[in-house]
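Sat 14:20. Reprocessing the chain from the morning session after the first attempt stalled halfway. Input below, unchanged.
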Amino acid sequence: MRHADVLSAGGGQAAVQLAASLRQGRFAGSIMIINDEPGLPCQRPPLSKAYLLGQIDEAALPLRPESFFAAQSIELLASTRVTAIDRAAQRVALSSGESIGYGHLALATGARNREIPGMAGALGLRTLADARVLRDALGTARSVAIIGAGFIGLEFAAVAAARGLAVTVIEAAPRALLRGVSAPMAEALVARHRAWGSRLLFGSAAETVMADLVLVAIGVIPNTELAEAAGLACANGIVVDATLLTADPAISAMGDCASFPTGSGRVRLESVQNAADHARCIAERLLGRPAPYAKVPWFWSDQGALKLQIAGLATGHDQTVIRGDADSDALSVFCFAGDRLLAVESLNRPAEHMAARALLARPHGLTPAQAADPGIDLRSV
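Finished this time. Tokens:
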């Protein structure tokens, strides 16, 4: 039976970063990545934007070139899935029928798209294979219906509008990005999409929409089945402690599938930053330097000519302060709970985004009065 000192179940951003960070830390043991998708692990953010617009081709999508894995002695098994974990024996079963032993197992199983039962012909966007199908479909479609006004839905709407298609976005919630951004930022984004010619429908009113192409973008479900079958605790993700370790000292979880503790409770995040920083935290622990995970989360979304950058988590905010003009393409929304800054959402204001990340990393950040004063340089605070 083959053995890997560190084995990643899943081949996305977190798995590749873990392997890279271990080698950067002079880890000399064997490393294996089990990736259920074919080919090299790819970046996901460009799939809903630049790739569909033809701005980059598939050669630019891999997270690392094949030569990296060879040079760093990282074994990559593509088109292969971990089907079971034997915790007592510390080995995993693979879809190929092989069994691999591990010293430490990192679960990077990610998430999958939510689907609407019975919607035959509707498409999703998660993998490179999905993006290929969508790109081909965009070449012949004249109209698009998008179910879900989250980040993926709005990013795809911007792509379709830029390609001259008639776009309708259908959202059951009363507004766009209900769990993603504050109401003022959502309003600003919706106004821009409508200016580009897209039709956005909110609420539960029944309406018939005709379209050549339908995209379902109503969120994701964390892939926890493997962990659950192995007896690991799961609750909207695989439950881990502050160092991203499960109840089994030989198993960690990272990225989209991990539910980890924060100062305000447990959270599960879906972002490149979260996946990469989780991997770095686990690498440090495996290298003998354990520390609690305490990174400020940040996200981005490109929608047409708009770049939305978010620092922090706005969940629980009770007031907002806007810097800039809410009717322009450049503004920031500061989200507070009382006098405590929780998050900053910046549209085409990268300097304020970087300042926000620094402010949120400090124990005493910005006050609402300071945020409202355009004369105050955030970097000086």
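The CA atoms of residues 55 and 199 lie 25 Å apart.
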